[in-house]
Automatic annotation (TrEMBL):
Pathway: Amino-acid biosynthesis; L-histidine biosynthesis; L-histidine from 5-phospho-alpha-D-ribose 1-diphosphate: step 2/9. It comes from Dongia rigui. The keyword Lyase does not apply. SUPFAM superfamilies: all-alpha NTP pyrophosphatases. The gene is hisE. Keywords: Amino-acid biosynthesis, ATP-binding, Cytoplasm, Histidine biosynthesis, Hydrolase, Nucleotide-binding. It catalyses: 1-(5-phospho-beta-D-ribosyl)-ATP + H2O = 1-(5-phospho-beta-D-ribosyl)-5'-AMP + diphosphate + H(+). Its EC number is 3.6.1.31. Signal peptide: none annotated. This is Phosphoribosyl-ATP pyrophosphatase.
Amino acid sequence: MSEKLDGTVLDCLFRTIEGRRGGDPNGSHTARLFAKGTAKIAQKVGEEAVEAIIEAMRGDNPALVAESSDLLYHLLVLWADRGVRPDDVWAKLKEREGISGIAEKAARREAKLAGK
Ligand SMILES: N=c1c2ncn([C@@H]3O[C@H](COP(=O)(O)OP(=O)(O)OP(=O)(O)O)[C@@H](O)[C@H]3O)c2ncn1[C@@H]1O[C@H](COP(=O)(O)O)[C@@H](O)[C@H]1O
């Protein structure tokens, strides 16, 4: 098991999720989420994020791994629901490669001060 997350596991899960669109809500958790709509899916993403934070603060790494998996799954369902493709996100991450978050934040502050 040496699959990388970009372009493999998450892309594969996204395809499975897309395949559940319009499916039977009684037989698929994903189809049930799609049927409930964006607000419910977004709420689930928030809940899973909070659960991941709680496990991190408790220092329970196996639980953090499980909650992180729940979070990523629900985030992918939210992307699918909103028409965002994983490639859009991978491209944005790629665009940011090599740009320090500190330098980026300073540039934003400069631009704001200059009224841009
Ligand atoms: N990765 C996941 C995954 N992670 C978490 N979950 C489900 O997400 C649910 C989260 O549980 P919760 O109690 O928080 O949510 P809930 O039951 O909706 O409760 P409420 O918030 O509505 O009260 C559980 O039922 C988990 O099984 C997932 N369900 C599906 N997948 C993947 O999606 C694929 C397709 O699944 P189906 O659409 O169910 O066929 C699966 O083969 C998996 O690969």
